[in-house]
Write a structure and sequence with these properties.
about 30% helix; elongated; 2 domains; 4 helices; alpha+beta
Length: about 220
């Protein structure tokens, strides 16, 4: 009980401090999220809980934007590609285009979570598809990019979710896990996502000044 009480006070103090300053940058908020998450986790589950809580808090450094959905192939094109016959019934699967693009991202840059799959045999009324895109590290879920149930008609579907990687995100190896669930069947793929240290190249204008026109001596 004593450990939980101390952690609880720490959480309140940190939150209050964050509210009082009121002018944190996104990076500062992400760092605070990791600390608060760790303290909350410790209050609940000791050291193990602290590690999980800190990981979840650190996920605040991944900024998610609205996903773009589109049908990239119609029913006839998709059926031809997969040699589909009506007696095959309802079929669905992920496609190779499901990935992180790019898969190596410097701090302060962005990537796209590309989820692509096909549906066949759904008919004109379509079928329910549950789509989930998350980022994990060492098995711990950091942030949910998308977790929605939608209705899809036959065809090939692409869902692109832009992700900004804040400069506060620690360089290292992460995983983009993308899953679809159709008629009780789950299909999932895991793509490595590497965050690298932000280089000085992005700040070259400040360091070296604006590029100057060159002249050729004759």
């Amino acid at each position: 009980m004593k450990r939980n009480s101390i952690a609880g006070v720490l959480i309140v103090s940190l939150v209050a401090g964050g509210i009082m300053t009121g002018c944190e940058t996104t990076g500062q908020s992400a760092g605070l999220g990791a600390v608060i998450g760790g303290a909350a986790g410790y209050a609940i589950g000791g050291t193990e809980g602290a590690l999980i809580g800190a990981a979840v808090g650190a996920g605040a450094g991944f900024v998610i934007h609205k996903a773009k959905e589109r049908r990239v192939k119609n029913a006839e094109e998709t059926a031809t590609e997969y040699k589909y016959e009506p007696e095959d019934g309802l079929k669905a699967d992920l496609r190779p285009a499901t990935s992180a693009s790019p898969s190596t991202v410097p701090q302060g840059s962005s990537s796209n979570a590309e989820l692509e799959y096909y549906i066949l045999g759904a008919g004109d009324s379509g079928t329910a598809v549950h789509e989930k895109q998350i980022i994990t590290q060492d098995g711990a879920e950091l942030v949910t990019l998308r977790d929605e149930s939608v209705s899809r008609v036959d065809g090939t579907w692409n869902v692109s979710t832009p992700i900004e990687v804040d400069s506060s995100v620690a360089p290292g190896n992460y995983d983009l896990v993308q899953t679809i669930s159709v008629a009780g069947n789950n299909m999932s793929t895991r793509t490595p996502l590497t965050v690298t240290t932000k280089t000085a190249m992005a700040d070259s204008r400040i360091i070296f000044g604006e590029p100057q026109p060159y002249t050729v001596s004759r």
